[in-house]
Amino acid sequence: MRVLHACSELYPLLKTGGLADVLGALPAAQIAAGADVRLLMPGFPALMKGIGETSLVAEQETFAGKITLRYGTYNGVGIYLIDAPHLYDRPGSPYHDGAQHEYADNYKRFALLGWVACELACAIDPYWQPEIVHAHDWHAGLAGAYLAARGYPARSVFTVHNLAYQGQFSARHLHELHLPSHFMQPDGLEFYGQISYLKAGLYYADMITAVSPTYAKEITQSEYGFGMENLLEQRQYHGKLTGILNGVDYQIWNPLTDPLLPENYHPRKMAGKAACKAALQYQQALTVTPDAPLFGVVSRLSSQKGLDLLLESLPKLLELGGQLVLLGSGDTHLQDAWLDMAKQYPKQIAVHIGYDEALAHNIIGAADVILVPSRFEPCGLTQLYGLKYGTLPLVRYTGGLADTVIDCSLENLADKLATGFIFRDSQVNELNDAIRRVFALWAEPVKWRRVQRQAMAMDFSWDIAAEKYLTMYQHLS
Question: How far out from the chain centre does Cα 414 lie?
């Protein structure tokens, strides 16, 4: 089966979030399962440089100017690149400039991604045409619309990684995008008078997937649907919405082999984790002690991620004797507030604004608890990394967090099922209660180590997800 993934990020070449991790692992897992899989991506500088040598597939005039379609390989996966320097050769983020302003021509830059995906289905490459076009998030949302406009030369799948990001643009651009005018209606890609690339993906795809089973249910509710809940409820009713949990690339995230850790370890030999903890405490100028539970945060700093809620719970965490290391960036007021806390408590809190892959691995390898207090979380990967590293997740019961963490309730502890700590509502008292339960288990080292081993035994490998996607594709074709 020939599958084309249309996407905008790829780990490790270009990453702003979990989307890159998914596309860095899922295609290879699908190839290993027997599929013929390729990627289509905009020719961002990091991708052009990282993929290196490419061959010419086609040159075309498009609504977004002249483009060259190139083909190369990276880590054994074939990748088409849309070489259009006037659109993509810009420093920094794929989506906005250094001042965090979205590029004014984003509507063209990402419409082109969907358009070229459709062109590949229509044989722009005479040697390879996809049977399935699998588009990811709003950036590739128009792929389904272009396929519909051309009579569905391939089946289409659209994956929602985060419904909050919708790709909305002025309706005046529709005539530029070579889409039929009648698509601009509620039964189409119109959303409150604008073009929504996300809605196009949801409306025109043959199948919608969300990145966890619980998130697939949540997004049909107004609390999580961001205005798309009615459409998603309809599509679910007709069997066109499902949830497939993201996986983990255990070649990258494995404490036994991780080259970024000062010492490696495994479930039956945890001395290396203690060494990682001491090293991180020393590097971050925290009190070096094995006795204080070390909490880690690797996250975007936003209200979605519950980082404001966690700030309110910090006094309880510190009062009980905990330490915390945070890595992330996001809302300016949250960044400032976290930096202020680190100044007030330099021996208990360390904060790094930005992203550093090596530090992320070190935090997850060294910490005793990884905090993911999200208000909503489509899948979440951080808690999955935490499980593998014996860093017990403390999470809110939502989305993929609910699907992957088993609470340290008395029953689950007795049945030897527990892998972490869960709180239900986004309330400070609920989070405080969960933090207290961390300290209660921490006071019983034998039980703590048993829960660590249970967490580390969980398997969220991409092989499982790859097989589920391939089964779904077969039902479409």
Answer: 33
